[in-house]
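sorry to bug you again but im stuck and you know this stuff better than me. what follows is a protein written twice so to speak, once as letters and once as structure tokens for the fold. mainly i need to know what kind of three dimensional shape the backbone takes. anything you notice is useful, everything is just below:
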Amino acid sequence: MITKKSYTLLIIISIIGTFLFPYGIINTMVSLKYETENAGDCISKVTGDNLCESISNFKIYFSISLVVLILLLAFKSKLVKNV
């Protein structure tokens, strides 16, 4: 059982993640377009980061955030301590 404040904080974090990670995907895709020479390249010429790996990670983080949000909403009555 968790407190109502903790539950609310987890909901807020999940909602922020649900909106923030797709922005990260779009931002990284723009970097992929302008910071690489060829269409198949994944390594940024500016930072040296693997942009394809970053996009994959953001997709995983988005999925986790969305699943956590759905589970929190679905099981509210079982998770929140009635005080």
Observations:
- The chain has three helices and no strands.
